[in-house]
Amino acid sequence: MPRYFFHLRHGPGPNGLAVDPEGDALAGPDEARAHALAVARDLIARVRVDAVRDWFACTFEVTDEDRRPVMSVPFSDTVTEDGD
């Protein structure tokens, strides 16, 4: 099963990136996106940190095991137009 890494972009430059050193083994890109959205929802609802002023301005930069970019998942994608 491929491993995906969910690096949290919360600001510009290298200081605005929290690197995921462990990653998660998931079946594929669809599962990686669903995982990113679930984690983003949890962070928005539960975590307060000084480094992140606006969770909706954050993005997960998802990479594969070779550190190649797979996708970006904006936290704003946790909110859909139909309210889900």
Brief overview, please?
With 84 residues, the chain is an alpha+beta fold.
- Identify the overall geometry: globular
How many distinct beta strands?
5
Unreliable stretches (pLDDT < 50, length at least 5) are: none
Provide a count of the helices: 1
Q: Which structural class is indicated by helix and strand composition? A: alpha+beta
Q: What is the helix content? A: 10-25%
Element-level helix/strand string: EEEHEE
Radius of gyration: 13 Å
Whole-number count of domains = 1
Explain this structure.
The chain is of the alpha+beta class and 84 residues long. It has one domain. It is 21% helix and 26% strand. It contains one helix and five strands. It has one helix spanning 29-46; strands at 3-9, 17-18, 24-25, 59-63, 69-74. Strands 1, 2, 3, 4 and 5 form a five-stranded antiparallel sheet that branches. Strand 4 (59-63) and strand 5 form a beta hairpin. The longest helix has 18 residues, at 29-46. The termini are far apart.
Which descriptors would you attach to this protein?
21% helix; 26% strand; five-stranded antiparallel beta sheet; single chain; 84 residues; alpha+beta
Note the topology.
Elements: E1 3-9, E2 17-18, E3 24-25, H1 29-46, E4 59-63, E5 69-74
